[in-house]
Amino acid sequence: TELGVERRFVPESCPRAVRPGDFVRYHYLGAFPDGTRFDSSYDRGSTFNVFVGKGQLIAGMDQALVGMCVNERRFVKIPPQLAYGSEGVPGVIPPNAVLHFDVLLIDLWNSEDEVQVQTYFKPEKCPRTVQVSDFVRYHYNGTFLDGTLFDSSHNRMRTYDTYVGIGWLIPGMDQGLLGMCVGEKRIITIPPFLAYGEDGDGKEIPGQASLVFDVVLLDLHNPKDGIAIENQLVPESCERRSQTGDFLRYHYNGTLLDGTLFDSSYSRNRTYDTYVGKGYVIAGMDEGLLGVCTGEKRRIIIPPHLGYGEEGRGKIPGSAVLVFDIHVVDFHNPSDSVSITVHYKPSNCTVLSKKGDYLKYHYNASLLDGTLLDSTHSLGKTYNIVLGSGQVVLGMDMGLQDMCVGERRTVVIPPHLGYGEDGVEGEVPGSAVLVFDIELLELVSGLPEGYMFVWNGEVSPNLFEEIDQNHDGEVLLEEFSEYIQTQVDTGKGKLAPGFDFEKIVKNMFTNQDRDGNGKVTAEEFKLKDQEAREEHDEL
Question: One Pfam family name from the record (predicted)?
Answer without folding.
Answer: FKBP_C
